Amino acid sequence: MTKRIYYLYHIFGKKIGVTRNLKDRLTVQQGYQPGEYEVLDSSEDIDYISERELELQLIYGYKIDRQSYKNLINKYKNQMKLNVTEQTTTFPYPINKLKGNLFDNLGIQIKTNFGGCALTPEVVEWIMDNANVSMYNPDRTYVYNKALYEFVNPKRGESKTKVEGNIYNLIRQWASERGIYTSGDAKTQCLKLQEEVGELSSAILKNNKQEIIDAIGDCVVVLTNLAVMKNLNIEDCIEAAYNEIKNRKGSMQNGTFVKEDTLLKPNATGVGYSHAANNAANDMLNTKTL
C-alpha cells in the first residue's frame, strides 16, 4: 500500500503548515510559486509531522494552530460523508475548502442512481467547475448527479474526439474500482512500466502490429495510474512535454530526431549524443528475440 508523505512547508513571512500536495495546496490554491516557500521537513509519520509543525510555528514566531494537523485531517475525514439524493451529491465543505479536501480523498467512490464514479483528479476539476453552494448551508456544496455521470460516461454516438478526451477518465475509474490507487505502489507501477516497455520492444522487433498496439496501450494505462499515484493528471504531463518540445529544433540522424543543442555535444565517452543514440538503436535492431 502506498504510504502518504506529509510535507512541512514554510511560506516566507507568512506561515508554517503541512500538506500532502505542495503544488495543489500552495501553487494552485494559494498562488505561491516554488522559491516563495521552502520545505522544512517531510515524513510518513503524521504524529511526528503534526508535533513538528507546532514546534516550528513556535520557533519561527508564527501563530500556533489551535488544532494539530493530525486532528484537523481526522476531523475532515470524519466529515467526508457524502449526501447523495436522487438529483444531487452534496459535499460537507464550503466552496473555498472543497478542492483541497477532495484531493485528500482521491479514489473514493461517488455512487448515484445513474451509476458509480471514482474521485479522480479530473473529476475533482469538473466538480470545482460545476459546484453549487447550498442555499440552506453555505458550508456545503453540491453537484448534479446526471451531469457528473454524463461527464464520466460520454454518450455513444458523440464525436470521437470527446470519447478520446475521456479515455483517461475511464482508465482511472477502472483502476479505482480495483483498488489500484488505494492499495498500489508508485514504485511497483514504475517497474510495471518497464515490463510493458520490454514487451513493446519485443513486439517492434517481431513487427507484430497487434502486439505493438496492445503494448503501447498498456504503457499508457500504467502511466495514467502512475500519474494519479503522484497526485497528477496524465493530460497535464503530456501537455507539459508538448510545450517543452513544440519549438524544439534539430534534425534526423540515422532515423532518430536529435535536438539542435546536442548534435555536437559530446558525452562522457567523447562520442556525440547522436552517435551514441545511433549505436544503441543499432544494438536493439541487431538483437534477436528468443
Give descriptors for this structure.
alpha+beta; 290 residues; 13 helices; Helix Hairpins
- Range of helix content: 40-55%
Structural class, by secondary structure, is alpha+beta
Total helical elements: 13
Into how many domains do the coordinates divide? 4
Residue ranges: pLDDT <50 for 5 or more in a row?
156-165, 273-277
Oligomer: single chain
Beta-strand fraction estimate: 15-25%
Question: What is the distance, rounded to the nearest whole angstrom, between the alpha carbons of the first and last residues?
Answer: 35 Å
Description:
The protein is an alpha+beta fold and 290 residues long. The protein folds into 4 domains: 6-74, no CATH class; 81-178, no CATH class; 184-245, Helix Hairpins (Orthogonal Bundle), CATH 1.10.287.1080; 250-286, no CATH class. 51% of the residues lie in helices and 16% in strands. The protein is built from 13 helices and 11 strands. The strands form 4 sheets. A 4-stranded antiparallel sheet has the order 4-5-9-8. The two termini are 35 Å apart. The relative contact order is 0.07.
